[in-house]
Design a protein that fits this description.
Strand content: 15-25%
Strand order of the largest sheet: 4-1-5-6-7-8-11-12
Oligomer: single chain
Largest sheet: 8 strands, mixed
Bound molecules: aspartic acid
CATH superfamily of the largest domain: L-asparaginase, N-terminal domain
Number of helices: 10
Structural class: alpha/beta
Shape: globular
């Protein structure tokens, strides 16, 4: 009987212990500080999220697994203390194949909070390379600062004969500390080359020179402690961070596609669709019918292209042509790659609701 009488008290103590544990974890994640070794040097925050750069070969399998903390990553970088005072925030340690827009939303909130501090010159984010281009673009759209935010990572883990992670972190900190790098927005910097978040793609599965920006070219180069600017291509599309992201589905169409997945996604509650179309923005007739079905349900549809470079154009007026789709209300993504167009549509829908005319403005 005693236990029954005391049960509410016991339950209360249990719930309170959970609350303090959670808030203390939350407190830890807020507890970021710069270790000043030289007050004349700029202060740079390094926020670590995982990826190959923070992995080591597993003793049993020999395969890469998450194994290196943010502090250990920084310790492995020669000469860092001569470049900047560093503060490390271990945001998480996951392979970027596990990243989601919801995680990037939290990461962007954290970067915004740190970068607005007057003592911070710039921020470096270490991240897996598999989804780095998209993650960098999500922050490009949502970071409210023109200070440098530099994504970097590595194609070889810390156990490899030539782990390039430490050198990439050094270059990223040099860029994040430098005034020459202001105004570029979020960049992806590996192997010395600086790419803008909007146009960068991962182009090679294993090579260290994997990130390229195609016809647009690199923004600049980091070498021997300094940043060289090649060009000033700056896109200033900015959107506020919403509390929640609407579900937007991405498809790549192909010869013989029957559009069933598009219909399925609409019936399952997708709030927006992005279709990587053929050529300059064309789909076959059955896929076109499925897109018209989505539009009839007032679901915005963005047309991007599978083609690596060049822009989606309203060139074809026959059924399924980009010109016909645009006339029927589809939004053309220009030269923005489809998986990034999905992030832009998510943020636009969160901001303007289901208003295709207003969403369209963000794709201009
Ligand atoms: N699978 C790894 C990741 O994306 C690849 C890398 O970081 O290079 O996390």
């Amino acid at each position: 009987m005693k236990i029954v009488r005391r049960f509410p008290l016991f339950l209360m103590c249990l719930l309170l212990s959970f609350y303090f544990a959670a808030s203390s974890h939350a407190k830890e994640s807020l507890d970021f500080k710069i270790h000043v070794t030289d007050s004349k040097l700029p202060n740079v925050a390094i926020i670590t999220t995982g990826g190959t750069i923070a992995e080591k070969a597993d003793a049993k399998t020999g395969k890469s697994v998450p194994a290196v903390s943010g502090e250990e990553l920084v310790k492995a970088v020669p000469g860092l203390a001569k470049v900047a005072n560093i503060g490390v925030l271990n945001f998480m340690n996951i392979d970027s194949s596990q990243m989601t827009p919801a995680i990037w939303l939290k990461l962007s909130g954290k970067v915004n909070e740190i970068i607005k501090r007057p003592d911070i010159a710039g921020v470096v984010v270490t991240h897996g390379t598999d989804t780095m281009a998209e993650g960098a673009y999500f922050l490009e759209l949502t970071i409210q600062s023109d200070k440098p935010v530099v994504f970097t990572g590595a194609m070889n883990d810390a156990s490899a004969p030539f782990p390039e992670g430490p050198g990439n972190i050094l270059n990223a900190v040099i860029q994040a500390s430098s005034k020459e790098a202001r105004g570029w927005g979020v960049t992806v910097t590996l192997n010395s080359y600086i790419n803008g978040a909007r146009d960068v793609r991962k182009t090679q599965t294993t090579n260290v020179q994997t990130f390229k920006s195609g016809e647009k070219g690199y923004l600049g180069y980091v070498y021997d402690g300094k940043v060289t600017r090649f060009n000033n291509r700056i896109r200033k599309t900015k959107l506020p961070l919403p509390s929640k992201l609407p579900p937007v589905v991405f498809f790549s169409t192909y010869a013989g596609d029957n559009g069933d997945f598009i219909r399925y996604a609409v019936d399952k509650g997708a709030k927006g669709l992005v279709i990587d179309a053929l050529g300059a923005g064309n789909v076959n007739e059955r896929t076109c019918d499925a897109i018209l079905y989505a539009l009839s349900k007032k679901i915005p549809v963005v047309i991007s292209t599978r083609v690596y470079y060049g822009s989606v154009e309203p060139a074809y007026g026959d059924k399924g042509g980009g010109g016909m789709l645009e006339k029927k209300g589809a939004i053309l993504a220009g030269d923005l790659m489809g998986t990034k167009a999905r992030l832009l549509l998510m943020l636009a829908l969160a901001e303007v609701g289901n208003n295709p005319e207003k969403s369209k403005m963000y794709f201009k």
